Amino acid sequence: EVQLQASGGGLVQAGGSLRLSCAASGFTFDDRAIGWFRQAPGKEREGVSCISFSDGKTYYADSVKGRFTISSDNAKNTVHLQMSNLKREDTAVYHCSALHVGECSYYDAKYANIDAETRFGSWGQGTLVTVSS
How far is Cα 94 from Cα 76, in angstroms, rounded to an integer? Predict the structure, then answer.
């Protein structure tokens, strides 16, 4: 059974940093890319970042490039999202997901209109990030 547990959210001031962690189990990292998507109240889900273990590529949404970094600890089956220079518009519930494929193409914004399961795969409960001014 695929399980994904996101943690590390909290309240932070604008300009601050947070590190999210995703503990994954029930599948092989080589088979499924892992990513982070977020959903703010009243807004659509947004693919934030993704890492592929099959080709080593990473994806970042334009809105977070240069501020967020995705990394993995394969020995611990954990993926992290280091978020720096946070902005109020980063406020959202962040979910980690295991895609049904080994690469991150579906995280690209051009796939925003496809169904969530196809795009993001499997995901668990998210962690809330609140950025105050």
Answer: 20
If you count them, how many residues does the chain have?
A: 133
Assess whether pLDDT exceeds 90 at residue 47.
Answer: yes
Q: Is the pLDDT of residue 29 over 90?
A: no
Angstrom distances, CA of residue 53 to CA of 98, 101, 115, 119, 130: 11, 11, 23, 17, 30
DSSP state of 37: E
Q: What is the mean pLDDT of residues 94-121?
A: 95
66 token code pair? 């240069």
